[in-house]
């Protein structure tokens, strides 16, 4: 499959899984669902990624990367769910992308990036209706999730570089580490579901749809797409979130919501990330010429 197709799969499941999770909140609890999501994903990854072997064979720098990615996945997922408990999915999804544009502005200070950031911030303010803006706790969790989403993009690209199978084996190791971080956070709530086969299967389904299918698809796309191209395609995700929230959660967007989502999408599409020589798709290996032999920092 071409990398753009993998991104399409990721775009759908990034919000289909969380929408299923929202339906489970009343039965299990927010932290319990987050625990089941990461636990089931780590369990699914383990047989074919051998996470502990990957960690044992890694050098010190790679281990640090895996621990960072694992901690990011654990805390990001918990913050995402705590935000979804209080706010519409379209708002939480839109806030994820303000940080990516801010990072682009920091790395490449241009009028274009400044305009892109202004568009995205304006879109978020349009989405924050008076009803939602009073929920400062929900907005705080959404802001934390957005900041960690930036870290996930950066660390995910690093993990995709040089790993076999597009970095999927490193992703499995990071997910096992994420389970260690989330273990004490949601275990007490998750225990409530253990007496029901249906709830356990639903929790596994959330993990499969939220953390296995989209994250594998991300790695397969990241390993073959330049970072700038991947960042541009992220513009599709706010609209995907709004569509899935409408279909699964009956969160029908208003005209104001559609305007806000459109502004965020324009901002994401317009921003220009800093050029990167890593994390980009590479042509088949050829004998390098004199210029290609220069080692870049």
Let me know the average pLDDT.
Answer: 80
How many separate helices? 13
β-strand percent reads: under 5%
Number of strands: 0
Q: Classify the helix fraction into a percent range.
A: over 70%
**Terminal Cα span:** 32 Å
Q: What structural class do you assign from the helix and strand content?
A: mainly alpha
Overall geometry comes to globular
Overall tally of structural domains: 1
The major sheet is characterized as: none
Compressed to H and E, one letter per element, the order equals HHHHHHHHHHHHH
**Rg, Cα atoms, Å:** 19 Å
Low-confidence parts: 277-297
Organism: Mesorhizobium alhagi CCNWXJ12-2
Protein name: EamA domain-containing protein
Region (Disordered): 274-297
Pfam families: EamA (PF00892)
Word description of this protein:
The structure is a single chain. It is globular and about 50 Å long. It has one domain (3-270). Mean pLDDT is 80; it is low at 277-297. The protein is an all-alpha fold and 297 residues long. It has helices at residues 3-28, 30-49, 51-57, 60-84, 89-107, 111-127, 130-133, 136-160, 168-190, 197-222, 227-233, 237-249, 255-270. It has 13 helices and no strands.
Give the helix/strand layout:
Blueprint: H1 3-28, H2 30-49, H3 51-57, H4 60-84, H5 89-107, H6 111-127, H7 130-133, H8 136-160, H9 168-190, H10 197-222, H11 227-233, H12 237-249, H13 255-270
